[in-house]
Amino acid sequence: MADGARAGSPVRTRFAPSPTGEVHIGNVVAVLISASLAKRHGGQFFIRIEDTDRARFTEGAEQLIYDSLHWLGIEWDEGPDNGGPHGPYRQSERLDRYKVYTQQLLDSGRAYKCWCSPERLDQMRRDQQAQKLAPRYDRLCYGKTEDQRRALPGYTERYTVRLVMPTTGTFTFTDAIRGEISFEYATQQDPIVVRADGFPVYHLAAMADDHDMGTTHIVRGEEWISTTPVHHQVFDALGWTPPIIAHSPLLLNVDKGKISKRKHPWAKMQWFMEEGFLPEAIVNYLGNLIAFVPDPGNPDPSIARELFGLEEIAAHLDLSKIGPSGKIIDLPRLEWLNGQYIRRLPLDEFRRRVLPYMAAAGMADVDQDTLAGALPLEQERIKRLSEAPQVLSFFFQDEEYDPKLLIPKGLDKQRTLEVLEAARQAIEDLAKEGPGWTAAPIKEQLWPLAEALGVKTGQLFGAGAVRVAVTSRIVGPPIFETMEVLGPDTVRRRLDAAIEKLRGHESI
Ligand code: GLU
Question: Which of 248, 268, 296 is the last residue of a domain?
């Protein structure tokens, strides 16, 4: 099996984020693949924080990474927070090791110090651009001692370390997802592996860690494909065997364009958390993009299962079947799926998940009995938990609305007033002597009014008249159930107010 364990070594995969303050949805796909792969083979999945680029460091970013994964239900066996046998798991705490490897590369001649000043490198880049040449370091420092180099222009004391890349031939590797990929060495330049500040760059630090931490599969974003030749050189130069490398599929917008953080706020994982998506829906949706999970209830094995979670992804993930093409994120489809998961939550759980959104909207102290009655009605309708405060607010307060909304299609102000007054009277009768204030008798009492008044039931209870009077909006949950939850006093008060509003509104 292409994604299987190497002889004798258990599968070890990792998530190696840079703590930049956000988790891209594309990273989540790589995480899902990595974590599922470890689970499938009974191996380990760990987190390594790649924080050597101090300029990009953001306070709180590490916690956000943990929170995002916890939220998704993805657990890790080792990491900066829970330790493990291959720690430390933060690159900033592993600098001594990188120094040893850097020295090894320098001693063996597989890397060299570069004393070229930023100004010289800049000028070189501009000249190459002007001549329409690919940017490439001209190796001025290669093979020189510091004294020899100092004698030449464009010298700076603060040196970087560059890896020696072959200049001819072809590099080919087998990407576990995309198959064979080749690069001509002629297109490569000697990359910097240690910056002037002494910190190693990703090329060195991540590869050294993946070796030291026993990573068997590097699963990472497709933006790293072109640097794979460099990474293989690092492994080769240090005498190590490279792990299996897989570049996860690119995520696309429905227009097949690349998802960008600038244009698509939902490129960031936080957006889904804030907007009331359920982790189950995200896992399921992304899982669908990377794994085929057959439906056990269907005799046709080509039919995919609709709803599934991390266990099923782990059981069915096969790197060689993910495919190299970009995967489309269709937000409306994801919202639909989210709605499916919302409907399936036990009521208690739905309530627990909705409460933070209520609190954030200043609705933490609403009447709990009313909430208990209203939640099941809205659970059937919303697609995101974040909609809850907006769709529930009328249960707790009388709200303003345009009196024109009271007039349904096909009726005028006068007829609407008649309808509302009749409804008001029917409610009065029911509340006084009726068989109790629940949806069924309310309906029994109000439904025949339509025929009696010569209007359609849609005009009475649809997008106008009674619905707007009682809920202050034209769409909402089933009207009789809503009236039951609101109670007779509120319904009467709102019908009175609606009649008042309509009467007093001259311009209608
Ligand atoms: N720190 C790199 C990133 O965040 C890690 C890439 C990898 O997984 O190796 O893109």
Answer: 248
* Count of beta carbons in the 10 Å neighbourhood of residue 293: 20
What residue has token string 């592996």? 193
Same-domain status, 242 and 98 = yes
> Which residue among 224, 226, 269 has the greatest number of ligand 1 atoms within 8 angstroms of its CB, and so is best to mutate?
224
Residues 275 and 327 in one domain: yes
CA distances from 259 to 25, 244, 256 (A): 9, 27, 9
DSSP 477: S
In order of 294, 304, 306, the CA distances from 300 in angstroms are 9, 9, 14
pLDDT in tens, 69-108: 999 999 999 999 999 999 999 999 999 999 999 999 999 9
- Domain span at residue 150 reads 94-248
Catalytic residues: 261
The candidate with the shortest Cα–Cα distance to 49, out of 65, 33, 26, 37, is 65
Does residue 284 fall inside a structural domain? yes
| Residue 203 near residue 230 (C-beta atoms within 8 A) | yes
Predicted confidence band at 506 (pLDDT cuts at 50, 70, 90)? confident
Same domain? 151 vs 290: no
Say which residues have a Cβ less than 8 Å from residue 156's Cβ, sequence separation at least 6: 115, 116, 117, 118, 196
Please count the structural domains in the chain.
Answer: 4
Q: Is residue 231 part of a domain?
A: yes
SS3 454: coil
Q: Relative to the CA of 219, which ligand 1 atom is closest?
A: 8
Q: Is 384 part of a structural domain of the chain? A: yes
Confirm whether 508 is domain-assigned: no
288 Cα: distance to centroid of ligand 1 (angstroms) = 23
Dig out the tokens for 118 from the structure.
């930023």
CB neighbour class for 256 (10 Å; exposed up to 12, middle 13-18, buried from 19)? exposed
What CATH number should be reported for the domain holding residue 218?
Answer: 3.40.50.620
